Amino acid sequence: xxxxxxxxxxxxxxxxxxxxxxxxxxxxxxxxxxxxxxxxxxxxxxxxxxxxxxxxxxxxxxxxxxxxxxxxxxxxxxxxxxxxxxxxxxxxxxxxxxxxxxxxxxxxxxxxxxxxxxxxxxxxxxxxxxxxxxxxxxxxxxxxxxxxxxx
Length: 151
Hints:
- The protein is mainly α.
- The chain contains eight helices and no strands.
- The longest helix has 27 residues.
- The chain starts with a helix and ends with a helix.
């Protein structure tokens, strides 16, 4: 009797996982960007899959502001999935530095990139130099946070 219940539970679990994965992959292939960005926060994939094959957002021109905003919207949906990924924060930091309208988001992503690059001396040095050159462009709150992280 226990084997019978266990077998049905296992079968139900496998079917539900397959259904969820089919749903998550089908979200990638939806033609509408609005529907895709709405469902993206519930898929298990990182930002690299959103920018990759079905969307080709990694090949879109970032000089166009609408493309930048579209990529940033996908990145904002993936913040909690890629919270400790330095490449994610670096890419977000670069996109936000192109558009000075989002100065608060830029400062937050710069600070997180700086904190995560603590063990990478080359990137950390580049970020320190960037901060020193653009010290006056940061708000006093983030200036203090970054300066505390310097030491």
